[in-house]
Amino acid sequence: MSETTLNTSQLKDLIKTAIIEILQEQQEVFTDIIVEAMEDIALAKAIKEGESSETVDRESIFKILGQKS
What we know:
Elements: H1 8-25, H2 27-51, H3 58-66
């Protein structure tokens, strides 16, 4: 067997190339991950804003949800 030696620069280039190939081949998976993370951030922000807003009774909520546009 022969040995292959890589210096730091060659190893970095190899890793970058591998990551780029993975991102290109699995673009849909990464897009889904990013979209889900954005939704989680928006939900967390909405919850935080809701903690400082005025409370509303359950009946009012369901009345609004039941209205037709």
